[in-house]
């Protein structure tokens, strides 16, 4: 699965933070990152892609290409979790990240476009008679497309952490540094783990083929998924 593991996010956060974390802080971050990743998995499962204008031809074996693919998906929701006494500061810290990720992740699918993809399948047409065409997109990495990746997480998250619970402008404060470290870990993992390893697969095409199996600009449904 392309979703980054909680342990990876924790390791990256610790490297970004550059300060020693106490046992309770590390325990909290483990719980936090499990929630982040559980929400990430559920969000990924809502995403579908398709909408390619597909053209091609063939008798028996059929091949073609699609252009202008798009993606759609549901909203990101980080599951709630309980941690020890659920102090107001801890709850505010957690909810601030949850609301920020909901904003940033939810916007990604509609921004993601796939310029082109290959389709292969079979055609029931002959050189002189029409027939049905059934094809599917050749699995491809998400890097064939482009979207607006989550960025600026720290700035939005910090705006939710207000006084008197947090003093995010204090250069000696640890909360601002931790927010920055966590945000950077999530943004890095989105690009270097999720985008780099997730595959686009399963988008299909069913169309009427003209003699010779020609299909011109038939639209693929939104049945593709991410794996």
Record the SSE blueprint.
Elements (H helix, E strand, L loop, with lengths): L5 H12 L5 H24 L1 E3 L2 E5 L2 E13 L15 H19 L1 H4 L1 E11 L7 E7 L2 E2 L11 H8 L13 H24 L1 E3 L2 E6 L5 E5 L5 E2 L1
Antiparallel strand pairs: 1-3, 2-3, 2-9, 3-4, 4-5, 5-8, 6-7, 7-10
Output the keywords.
227 residues; elongated; 25% strand; 10 strands; single chain; alpha+beta; 3-stranded antiparallel β-sheet; 7-stranded antiparallel β-sheet
Overview of this structure, please?
With 227 residues, this protein is an alpha+beta fold. The protein has one domain. Helices cover 40% and strands 25% of the residues. It is built from six helices and ten strands; from the N terminus they run H-H-E-E-E-H-H-E-E-E-H-H-E-E-E-E. Strands 1, 2, 3, 4, 5, 8 and 9 form a seven-stranded antiparallel β-sheet that branches. The protein has a three-stranded antiparallel β-sheet with strand order 6-7-10. Helix 1 packs across helix 6, helix 3 packs antiparallel against helix 5 and helix 5 crosses helix 6. It is elongated, with a radius of gyration of 23 Å.
Summarize the structure.
With 227 residues, the protein is an alpha+beta fold. Helix content is 40%, strand content 25%. The chain contains six helices and ten strands.
Regions with pLDDT < 50 over 5+ consecutive residues?
Answer: none
What Rg, in angstroms, do the CA atoms define?
Answer: 23 Å
**Terminal Cα separation, in Å?**
7 Å
Strand content: 25-35%
Structural domain count = 1
Number of strands: 10
Structural class: alpha+beta
Round the mean pLDDT to the nearest integer and report it.
Answer: 96
Compressed to H and E, one letter per element, the order equals HHEEEHHEEEHHEEEE
| Largest β sheet strand count, sense and barrel closure | 7 strands, antiparallel
Share of helical residues: 40-55%
The rough form would be described as: elongated
SS element count, helices: 6
